[in-house]
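Researcher: I'm comparing several assemblies side by side, and this is the next one on my list. It has 428 residues spread over two chains. Same procedure as the others: predict the full complex and return the structure.
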Amino acid sequence: MKTIDDELREEGFFAGLNGEELRLIAACGKHRSFKAGTSLAREGGEAKEFFLLRRGHVALQLHTGPADSLILQTLGPGQMVGWSWLFKPYRWTMEVNAVEDTHTVCFDGQCLRGKCAENPKLGYELGKRFSQIMAYRLEAARLQLLNLYDGSAPS
Amino acid sequence: MMDPLLPRRVEILSVAEEVQNVFTLDLRPPPDYGPFEAGQFNMLYVPGAGQAAISVSGDPRDKTRLRHTIRREGNVTSLLQAKQVADHIGLRGPFGQGWPLAAAEGGDLLLLGGGIGLAPLRPALYQALAHRERFHRISLLIGARSPEQLLYYPELQHWADEGSLELQVCVDSASATWRGRVGVITDLIPEAEFDPQQVTVLMCGPEIMQRFSVRKLRGLGVKGEAMYLSLERHMQCAVGLCGHCQLGPQFVCRDGPVFPLGKIEPYLMTGEF
């Protein structure tokens, strides 16, 4: 059976990290699975954790009314879910629900923040990688906001 | 052979709403029409109002009707939607360069359609599926604003269910009941099944979508020569005379609307064009 360390080595997000850094990160991780329709995180809830998706898809949702919510993005295998654990006040800004049965590596954010504080290079490496994700998702969000497909955006 | 500048009077066979603000108009082809190539367009006239360039969205093998899927966004297209069965409108065409399906034979075929951009791709799909053995994998990636705005979805899903093609869909946003993907169409590209060295890519949709798709495909090793884009510009004469649709040294009506990437790339990235 693969260890978490082995699994991290398979994912592009962790490419370029050395063995010691991977071991430090893996030590803060554990496997967690979610049935379709169950929640990985609640909007406003304490962001103690983040997830590496190994199988299945999740939906990032925002409540738009008492009984309504809108899916703003879906994420799948190999993608990271959650960066609120990195920033105060450490609260989830969206709800995360499993669209299908989903297997993850769940990381303890507090554990990892502590290791980053002791090992600034590790913190820098993780910060770079999460910044890349944020930049990409910001670009995607801008495109989604343009309403490209209904012809209202300039070509 | 039709005189390219002389509109023919054609009968409307049906008008059907597809999704909000998008409808499909079936016309009886004039006796001297065509045949059209997948990716070509016609000029449709509403007498007294004006004309619009509309891609043919139907099956090239169907000689009984000329199908056009149209987004209502101005006077002419609104008047077209208001037409009734047995009414008549004007038609010139077909015009322009179509999709290079013959060049894609023997390899994988990847189609990217955003919104109404799926309409000019559908004839290419009909043609490719009619000769399925000539292609290896066929993947269709489609983007839409919402699940309710997905064009031709039952037909596409049917083709996917029978194993004729791989279908992936992505919408900009959706209600919580949607079980598909939400995000940008470029996210689907790395998941599609194709060999970057053996694929021909056909794309049509908003130009911003096409620019980002080109960037993503290049990152995966797809060569520029394997990418073909269909562009939309304001077209008038449709035969490269009036200059309304000029794009650098090209006229979209005559040299396009389907272009190999290399012919138009510098102008795609330039604001003034």
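Model: For your comparison table: The first helix of chain A runs from residue 4 to 9.
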